[in-house]
Design brief:
The chain has ten helices and three strands. It is mainly alpha-helical and about 300 residues long. It has a three-stranded antiparallel sheet with strand order 1-2-3. The radius of gyration is 48 Å and the shape is rod-shaped.
Length: about 300
């Protein structure tokens, strides 16, 4: 047994010595070794060629389309931001959309209700017959050159002929007139309700106006109240109109931001894979390495 062990040991020594000698011969041939251990070790370490790490690039399928993002937000504000993964901005634009739409709807409804209210007030308290009669009675104070008998303002049944009334108003506002500058539109027309509470010439059509007044510039309380109520309706409609403009602006801004968000998403997302050469337990090994970088 002892002889066998010695023989095996001898064989191992011979093999190791042969390999080492072969390596030294190759190193000597390649690096021109000097035979000095310290110097030769330095030469070998400086000239070891590690295998170049192969670089493997993986196509990133997570990129976002800026055009699609912009289109989504143009249709639904926040849609493009959601598509690009920017959920905070998506929520902000969606919330703004809800706010401006709600504002537009609510104030348009308020305007409609207010309009119905002031029109009902006018129907109850303003009368074209009263206005026409006061104008005829005070024609000399308005325009003495006009003869009311030349105008058939009242029909035989007592109703007012609007075309004749308009002709009469035009004559009063002509040469020598002192302020009859408008023509009363047909009953129920939007301009009809606007003019009777806007211009003093219609002030004596209100039921609380003094029929003995000789100056149409004297305004009755109902005229002033009606003007304020009509003004409220206009204010409501103005707010609604501005909210509608806000809807368009929100869509446009969201679309622009969505394009930018998608572009930034693509530029901030970097996915790389490569094989790195690392040394473990005295030997080199190729280790696959995945690097994912996302900055914001």
């Amino acid at each position: 047994m002892k002889i066998k062990n010695k023989i095996l040991t001898l064989i191992v020594i011979v093999i190791f010595t042969s390999i080492n000698l072969s390596a030294q011969i190759k190193a000597t041939e390649q690096y021109s070794l000097t035979g000095k251990l310290k110097t030769d070790s330095k030469i070998i370490s400086q000239n070891i060629n590690h295998p170049e790490s192969p670089k493997l690039m993986i196509e990133n399928n997570s990129k976002k389309s800026p055009m699609l993002a912009g289109f989504l937000s143009l249709i639904i504000p926040g849609g493009g931001e959601f598509y690009s993964g920017n959920y905070l901005k998506a929520g902000i634009f969606a919330a703004l959309e809800a706010i401006v739409i709600t504002t537009a709807v609510v104030y348009n409804k308020k305007g409609n209700n207010q309009t119905t209210s002031f029109q009902n007030f006018a129907n109850k308290n303003w009368d074209v017959k009263r206005y026409a009669q006061w104008t005829i009675n005070n024609v000399n104070n308005i325009n003495p050159s006009v003869d009311p008998n030349n105008y058939n303002v009242f029909r035989s049944d007592g109703s007012v002929d609007f075309s004749e009334l308009n002709r009469f108003e035009a004559a009063l506002g002509g040469l020598g007139g002192i302020g009859y500058t408008h023509r009363l539109p047909a009953f129920g027309d939007q301009q009809y309700y606007e003019l009777i509470g806007k211009y003093p010439q219609y002030s004596h059509g209100w039921n609380d106006a003094n029929p003995n007044d000789t100056d149409f510039h004297i305004l009755s309380p109902n005229f002033l109240f009606y003007s304020g109520e009509r003004g409220k309706a206009n204010d409501y409609y103005n707010i609604s109109d501005k909210a509608i403009i806000g809807i368009y602006i929100n869509h446009l801004l969201s679309a622009i931001d969505a394009v930018w968000s998608a572009a930034m998403f693509n530029s901030n997302l970097s996915l790389k894979m490569r094989v790195e050469n690392r040394r473990f337990a005295g030997k080199n090994e190729l280790v696959p390495t995945l690097k994912l970088k996302f900055s914001f």
